[in-house]
Amino acid sequence: MKNKPIYVELDIDAALSELWEHTQDPRLHEQWDLRFTEIEYLPRADVSEKQLFRYATRIGFGFKIAGMGETCSTTAPNKGMRLSTLAFSSEQQLSLIRKGGGYWKYEENGNRLTFITLFDYQTRFGFAGKLLDRYLFRPLFGYATAWSFDRLRIWLEERIPPSFIAERALIHYMSVILIMLLWCYEGLVPKLFFPEAGELYLMRKLGWFEGSELQIIQLIGILEIGLGLITAFWHRRSGMYTVQALLLLLLTAPMILFAPELLAAPFNPLTLALPMIGLCFAARWSSRYLPQASRCRRKYSPSLRKEGITCDRFTSKR
C-alpha cells in the first residue's frame, strides 16, 4: 500500500525574506502551523552544519507526540528560489509516524511568491497503520498543512496574528455547528416527530392554513433541516446569515402577534430566535479572514518525480 506524498502549494503576496523568516524562525513557525505546538532549535557549532531541532504536538488529554529532526537550507538569489529540506523521526510508540522527510520551496512568481511543500513519511503498526494513515491520518495531515499555509498567508498579507485568526475560526465553526444543530432540531423534533407538543397549536392559532396545519408544519420542518445542512456546506458565504436572520424574524413575528401569551413561557419562540440571530451575526463576522485549505493546490503530479522533485532520500535517511 503506497500512499502519495503530501503536496501543498500556495501563492502569497509577501517578500521572500519575510516568508523565509516566518517559516525558518521556530518562534514564528509554531504560531501558524497546526502540526506543531513546540519547535526548538538545538545549538550547533557552525552555521554550515545541519540544524537539529526538537518538535512536539499536543494531541489532547495531556498527551503529546515528540520527535527529532534536522533541516538544511540552500539559497539561489539569482534564480529567485530558496529550498529548505528536512528529515524527522519519532521514537514514541504512540506516534503513527516513524520517520519522514521533505522540503519547503520558495519561488518568486511575478509580484508574488509560490510557497510549496512536499513531504512523506513511514508509519508504525504494520498494515493497520498504513490503512489508518491512508483513510484518516494522511487526509487530515494534508488538510492541516493546507489550512496552516493559508493562515500564514493571512498573517503576511493582512497582518492579522495567527492567534487572532485561530480565535475567529473557533468562534465561526462553533457558531456554524450550533446554528446547524438548532435548525435540524427545530425541524426534526417539534415539527416532524411531535407537532402536537405545541407547533400544531401555534399553527391553528394563526388560522392561515385551516385543515392543512399539520402538512404545513411538516413542510417547514423539512425546510429547516435543509437550511441546517446548507449552513454546514456554505458556511463561508456571509450573505447566507443575513438571510437566516430575516427568516427567523419572519417565523417568529406571527407567533408574537397572534399568540402573545407565549412570551410568558420560560422557553418561547423569542428566546430561541434571538440567540440564533446572535449566532448568525457571529458566524457572519468571523467568516472574514478565515483560513481555507481549498485555496491551496494539493494535487501531486508524477511529473514532479520526473523532474527530480521527490522526498524519498529524506524519508530513507533517518
Name some characteristics of this structure:
318 residues; alpha+beta; Alpha-D-Glucose-1,6-Bisphosphate, Chain A, domain 4; seven-stranded antiparallel sheet; 50% helix; disordered C terminus
Describe this structure in words.
The chain is of the alpha+beta class and 318 residues long. The protein has 2 domains: 6-160 and 292-315, START domain (Alpha-D-Glucose-1,6-Bisphosphate, Chain A, domain 4, 2-Layer Sandwich); 167-286, no CATH class. The protein has 10 helices and 7 strands. A 7-stranded antiparallel beta sheet has the order 1-7-6-5-4-3-2. The model is unreliable at 313-318 (pLDDT under 50).
Write the layout of secondary structure elements.
Layout: E1 6-12, H1 16-24, H2 26-32, E2 38-41, E3 51-60, E4 63-76, E5 81-89, E6 97-109, E7 112-123, H3 126-158, H4 162-193, H5 199-206, H6 213-233, H7 238-258, H8 269-286, H9 302-306, H10 312-315
Antiparallel strand pairs: 1-7, 2-3, 3-4, 4-5, 5-6, 6-7
Helix pairs in contact: 1-2, 4-6, 4-8, 7-8
